[in-house]
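=== RUN LOG ===
request id: a7f3
mode: sequence -> structure
chains: 1
length: 234
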Amino acid sequence: MATNIAYSVPGGSFDFWIDRFEKHYVIYNKPSNKFGEQYLTFLDPDGLKLELVIPKNADSRKGWETDEVKAKVALKGFHGVTLTVLHKDETAAVLTDVFGYKLEEQSGNRYRYMTDAVETANIIDLVELPHEPRGLGGAGTNHHIAFRVKNEEVLMQFHDKIAGLGYNITNKKDRNYFYSLYFREPGGVLFEIATDNPGFGIDEPWDQLGTNLMLPPQYESRRAELEAVLPQLD
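=== RESULT ===
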């Protein structure tokens, strides 16, 4: 399964986050290091393992600032993801032969793969645990991880490549804001490939993204029902 999601944060921000975790009763571990990077592990309310990482390579992305979280400590975005598998070789082959990742470093049973297609959010760690039971989905787990591509043409090139390798890959799915494909890699993790187009600006102005509840046409008739059960966000 995908067992850990890591987010990039600025250097010197851990004291702020530890204080914030304690104020909000968030379970966390003491900061530690792997592959030359400091990281701070914590759990969300469902038990999902998350990490804050101070990258060793500069991250120029601007963090999302609020009244309580200023840019000098704010999350900048995804840093990487950890996949825990029984045996790494076939999963690693998908990363390298299909997606173009390269093995960068190894520490014990943890193998770090990176792509140079993008400068950030380009890390996948494989942790090999051959004697562990297989993961089961539910609260506190990740359903899938997604890889982004430019458009449908590139998407379908991946479809043909993956199908040609014998994997059971879905037909193209229309997700209103993007198109996607799904397949399970040999270790059992569900992979999605998703397009940038048409994008989230098709039904609201870009400067208002995230301020309103936008629903695909097939769910618009259930708006009142859905709004009644969703939590209120400040």
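=== NOTES ===
The chain has two domains: 2-140, 144-204.
Residues 144-204 form a domain with the 2,3-Dihydroxybiphenyl 1,2-Dioxygenase; domain 1 fold (CATH 3.10.180.10).
=== END ===
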